[in-house]
Structure of diphosphomevalonate decarboxylase:
Amino acid sequence: MTSATAIAHPNIALIKYWGKADETLSLPATGSLSMTLDVFPTRTTVTVDDTARDTLQLNGRAATEGELARVTKFLDLVRELAGDTRPAAVVSENTVPTGAGLASSASGFAALATAAAATYGLDLDTRDLSRLARRGSGSASRSIPGGVAIWHAGDDAASFSETVAAPPLAMVIATVDAGEKPISSREAMRRTIATSPFFPAWIPSTAASLELMVAACAAGDVTRIGELTESNALRMHAVIQGSEPPIRYLTAASTRVFDAVAGMRAHGLEAYATADAGPNVVVLTRPEDAAAVAATLTAEAGIAEPVIALPGPGAYLVDGSE
Ligand code: PMV
């Protein structure tokens, strides 16, 4: 194939990935678990080209040198596997606000991995595609399978993502700031590992929470899933804030959302908050409660347009003309 187009959706972790065991292979220090969303897809087309080097168009503009370098590094890996040296033209459209802590890198690299593998003729199953996407951005591994996915820690062969059984869940996305985050998750992870005194405690704590989360998913226990989600998110922000110099992703507006969510629980509405490497907050709830959660976020925390998401599909190829 000389051209292929793929669509992938972002995922939000219920048990977070924060810290690498191997930076080159993008192996995580611990396993993690997420829900892929059915909103904010990324659509990426990879076309083998006769040009001298790779090109990248991102949301209708030419990419920066830094963005292009990251994509070229990833394509080099694909080309090495495929035994092909030809450059490619990559065109990618993100509908999630880029860099706002809503995992645009996850949908981006999941779509790129899926399209590039097809373009360069690699015949990969979901497991190997998730290992490949992992090399672009760790969390992208979890956007390859659909729904609720676990990303295993382990060596290169064992660190892949797969769907796990889970009860019906919904997420309500509270965007408090759609701007670029001040420090990338890649850089912040490095600093956390090097300087946060809490990092050594984060690893076993997260591994233990992941085991409990897998059991709660299997049991269909939404309350336990929610409790573990909120606690793991706050622990991640604590370990990040313990870095030197400190990194703070949560803002006063984020805290207002956490307060509103605690208020919902006090009034019998089951909702649990989480946040990735940015100020935006995502609220986990049951699908039948999502509209009430969204309305309360607007009334109590001033969130203009909360977005309701259900579990989304894994990454897939589409006809380029679609
Ligand atoms: O995939 P990366 O390298 O952008 O890291 C993502 C890290 C978090 O989003 C904060 C947590 C997670 O598990 O998705």
Q: What stands out?
A: The chain has a mean pLDDT of 94. The chain has two domains: 3-165+312-318, 170-309.
